[in-house]
């Protein structure tokens, strides 16, 4: 294992992603052997960039397949005369050409397309009532990247409610006699086997505490380096304002103000100056309180796969707003699933447009060099204009006030 002092960046991905990178390394050595030297920090070469770009594009094949499967789950009642007016075509463009995913994967450089492909594929399987496959894919996804724990409550509750209970009463409430122990055991076995395959070797070597310390480095700052626009960013800003006022009025001693950054991507702690300091436990409690209403509705007022998708989106947004050390790209956890809802109802489309516009704009700091400024502005404008025009065409008869979002289509335009 690498010593923590090897690099300032911790190894904070689950085991499956490590195996994924290990497989990639066997191909990478044919491009540039030096990129595989773990002590060769900040190394860059044209061949390394070439390999990174092509490997991301190649792995996006899974994302394309997942989008195809999701499009099969869309209701085709609103079928336009032209191909470009059909919901499935619009959804495919909203997902495949998503501005946020494009800059995160192909400019900022990550493998999020591959990971989101696993998530969308698991959602598609749940829509297709292939619950065991959906559960398996999501379990695998969690061991590739644990940020998807944000939406795990939606998966767990939906699978228990819709798969383990085989029948409901006419009013939609639970028919307890229909509870299937076999299905519960099957789901548990899937989760257990995937977890055992991922974490078993570390458990055998007594290295599991080290794995979890890297996966959940709570000594990092409350906010990520570029400040995801969530509740804690406002909280930190308010603390900063109050501290400046306190210094001006001489209520505070400059020598007692902490010097550490509250927004570092590196490992360090921060104490607020005026407001109470926030702990990881406090953010967890706030997140759980925020997701409870959607979880409650998913259990007691089930609305099928679309209800699950709404709950998943709300879980992602709640975790984004109140989670600890949230990365800006976590907003894509809500934007991509919301894309599926946007082509179903005009109200969902309105919310989707507001969410994508604000959420994608919050990703701008990831591309911070001057040459990238016109690129990100142009790409976002193209995606936003297409989203508004295509969804407006799809719901051309819904020009009246949309109750769910409280806005009109021409206002969004």
TrEMBL record:
Going by the UniProt record, its keywords in alphabetical order are: Endoplasmic reticulum, Glycosyltransferase, Membrane, Transferase, Transmembrane, Transmembrane helix
Q: Membrane-spanning regions, if any?
A: 50-67, 88-104, 134-160, 180-205, 281-301, 307-324, 331-355
> Which terms does the record give in the GO molecular function aspect?
hexosyltransferase activity
State the pathway, as annotated in the record: Protein modification; protein glycosylation
Return the EC number. 2.4.1.-
Q: Where in the cell is it found?
A: Endoplasmic reticulum membrane
Recorded hits in Pfam families, A to Z, give:
Alg6_Alg8
The protein depicted here goes by the name Alpha-1,3-glucosyltransferase
The protein's organism comes out as: Gorilla gorilla gorilla
């Amino acid at each position: 294992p690498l010593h923590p002092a090897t690099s300032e960046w911790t190894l904070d991905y689950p085991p499956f992603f490590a195996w994924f990178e290990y497989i990639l390394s066997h191909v990478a050595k044919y491009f540039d052997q030096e990129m595989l030297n773990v002590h060769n920090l900040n190394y860059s070469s044209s061949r390394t960039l070439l390999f990174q770009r092509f490997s991301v594009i190649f792995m996006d094949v899974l994302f394309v397949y997942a989008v195809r499967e999701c499009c099969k789950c869309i209701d085709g009642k609103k079928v336009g005369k032209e191909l470009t007016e059909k919901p499935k075509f619009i959804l495919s463009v909203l997902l495949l050409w998503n501005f946020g995913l494009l800059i995160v994967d192909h400019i900022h450089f990550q493998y999020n397309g591959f990971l989101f492909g696993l998530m969308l594929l698991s959602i598609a399987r749940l829509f297709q009532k292939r619950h065991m496959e959906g559960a398996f894919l999501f379990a695998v996804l969690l061991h590739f990247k644990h940020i998807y724990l944000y939406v795990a409550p939606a998966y767990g509750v939906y699978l228990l409610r819709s798969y383990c209970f085989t029948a409901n009463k006419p009013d939609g409430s639970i028919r307890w006699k229909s509870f299937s122990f076999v299905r519960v055991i099957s789901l548990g076995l899937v989760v257990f086997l995937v977890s055992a395959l991922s974490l078993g070797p570390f458990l055998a070597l007594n290295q599991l505490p080290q794995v979890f310390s890297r996966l959940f480095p709570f000594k990092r700052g409350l906010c990520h380096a570029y400040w995801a626009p969530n509740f804690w960013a406002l909280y930190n800003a308010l603390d900063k304002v109050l501290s400046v006022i306190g210094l001006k009025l001489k209520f505070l001693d400059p020598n007692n103000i902490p010097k550490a950054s509250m927004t570092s991507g590196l490992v360090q702690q921060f104490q607020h100056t005026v407001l109470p300091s926030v702990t990881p436990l406090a953010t967890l409690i706030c997140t759980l309180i925020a997701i409870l209403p959607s979880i409650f509705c998913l259990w007691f007022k089930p609305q099928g796969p679309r209800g699950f998708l709404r709950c998943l989106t709300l879980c992602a947004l709640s975790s984004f707003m109140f989670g600890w050390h949230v990365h800006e790209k976590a907003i894509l956890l809500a934007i991509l699933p919301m894309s599926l809802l946007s082509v179903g109802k005009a109200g969902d489309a309105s919310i989707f447009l507001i969410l994508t516009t604000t959420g994608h704009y919050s990703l701008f700091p990831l591309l911070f060099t001057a040459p990238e400024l016109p690129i990100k502005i142009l790409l976002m404008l193209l995606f936003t204009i297409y989203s508004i025009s295509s969804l407006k065409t799809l719901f051309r008869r819904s020009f009246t006030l949309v109750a769910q979002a409280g806005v009109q289509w021409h206002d969004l335009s």
